[in-house]
Amino acid sequence: MLLNTYEPWKFAFSQEIVNIKENSFGIIGVPFDSTTSYHSGSRLGPIVVREASFGFEKYNTIFNKDLSTTFYDFGDVNVVPGNCEKTCKIVEDTVNELINLDIKPIIIGGEHSASIGAIKALSEKYEKLTVVHLDAHRDLAFDFVGEKYSHATVMRRVHELGLDLVQIGIRSSSRDEEEFVKSTYNIQTFKSRDVHKHMDAIEYYLTTIEGPIYISIDMDVMEPAIAPNVGNPTPGGLFISEIETIIENLSHKDIVGLDVVETASDRLGDNTAVAAAKIIYDFLTLID
C-alpha cells in the first residue's frame, strides 16, 4: 500500500485486542492537565502522540531492528477534570487491571501526575522497584500551592513508597528539593551536563541497577528548541540521540513499565508529539 491507513486513537503497529498475549505491553492514555502551572494542553498529548506514531516505519533503522514487540492500545482512561488525586487512583486501578492480565503499562500523558498511580500499582506487585526518571525538574516538592497531588510533587509521592530513584537530565529545582535529595540515600542524580559530557558514566551506572525498573520520561527533559510544547520548557536539555542511548541501555534490564508525559499541543504533526512518539517507538523496538 502507498498510504498508511489506521484505526483512530491507536498507536501505530498495535495489535487487535483479542486473545491477549501474556507478558506483553499495553498503552493507555491519560488526557489530564488540571494541575499544570505554566503551559497547559497536555490533556491532548495522547491524541497527538498517537497520530505522530504513524510517521514511522516498522523497521527501525537506528537500531537495525523491526518493531516486533507484542503490544496493545487500550485507549484513554476516564479522568476526573480538576481532581488529581481521584485521577491518579483511576490510573492505579487501570494499571492493576493490566497487571492482572500480565500486561506491562505504557502511559501517554497528559501531565506527569499520571505516573503516581502507575508506579503505586507496580510498587505493590514488585518488592524492589527502581524508577528511572528523565526530567528537567526534580518534581520532589512536598506539596505545590497546598496540593500534595500535582505535576510538581510526583517523585516525592513516589519516593514515599520507599523506591529507589534515578533522576537524569535535571537542570531546574528548588533549594528545598536539593536539600531533600542530600538528606536521602536512595536518589541518584545525573544532571543535563552529565548527560552531555559523561554519558559513559551514566551508561555504566544503568547497567548496575538490579531488579525491575519503571521508566518515567517528562518531555521537558528534551532541549526545548527540539521539543518546545511541554508544560515547563527549560533550556539546556537532552537530544533524541541521548535518550535513545539511555533507552537502549535500559532495554537489557527488567523493564516493567514506561510513561512519556507532558506533551502539550493540540496540533497534529507537532515537533514534541513526534519526538514523544519516537521515544515510545524506540522503546517498543528495543524491548523485545
List keywords for this structure.
single chain, 288 residues, alpha/beta, 8-stranded parallel beta sheet, 9 helices, 19% strand
Describe the structure.
- The strands form 2 sheets. An 8-stranded parallel β-sheet has the order 4-1-5-10-9-6-7-8, sandwiched between helices. A two-stranded antiparallel ribbon has the order 2-3.
- The model is unreliable at 1-6 (pLDDT under 50).
- With 288 residues, the protein is an alpha/beta fold.
- The protein has helices spanning 45-52, 84-100, 114-125, 154-159, 175-182, 192-197, 199-208, 240-250, 271-287, and strands at residues 24-30, 59-60, 65-66, 71-76, 103-109, 130-134, 164-170, 187-191, 212-218, 254-261.
Report low-confidence residues grouped into runs of 5 or more: 1-6
Counting copies of identical and different chains, the oligomeric state is: single chain
Q: Give the overall silhouette.
A: globular
**Helix tally?**
9
DSSP strand content? 15-25%
Chain-wise SSE layout:
Layout: E1 24-30, H1 45-52, E2 59-60, E3 65-66, E4 71-76, H2 84-100, E5 103-109, H3 114-125, E6 130-134, H4 154-159, E7 164-170, H5 175-182, E8 187-191, H6 192-197, H7 199-208, E9 212-218, H8 240-250, E10 254-261, H9 271-287
Parallel strand pairs: 1-4, 1-5, 5-10, 6-7, 6-9, 7-8, 9-10
Antiparallel strand pairs: 2-3
